[in-house]
Design brief:
By secondary structure, the chain is of the alpha/beta class. It has helices spanning 9-18, 35-43, 60-70, 82-98, and strands spanning 24-27, 29-30, 33-34, 53-57, 74-77. It starts with 8 loop residues before the first helix and ends with a helix.
Length: 99
């Protein structure tokens, strides 16, 4: 498994467009944008619209609602419990294998 990192939404967008990924974990709070805006952009892009997205945030219900409305598949509150993250990733993997 290869893990990549981006400091902001625009860098993330460039990386997502340049290389294939199995999933994206996107924080709601990003410099100069929001994770929800990035997810919306991904869902409108033919190459990225089906990429599984796990949204994360300390922003509570507002960040969760905005992320899920934008098209994130799942949302996790920060701080993230590693067990929850691994369970979430396993669920996404099983869902992708079923389709």
């Amino acid at each position: 498994m290869v893990v990549d990192f981006a400091d902001d939404a625009e860098t993330a967008w460039e990386k997502l467009r340049a290389s294939p990924y199995d999933l994206a974990i996107i924080d709601y709070y990003l410099p100069q944008s929001t994770g929800a805006a990035l997810v919306t952009r991904m869902r409108r892009d033919a190459a990225l619209h089906g990429l599984p997205v796990v949204a994360i945030s300390v922003g509570g219900a507002a960040a969760r609602d905005a992320s899920l409305e934008a098209g994130a598949d799942l949302f996790l509150d920060k701080p993230i419990v590693l067990r929850d993250l691994f369970t979430t990733l396993a669920r996404l993997t099983l869902r992708e294998e079923a389709t």
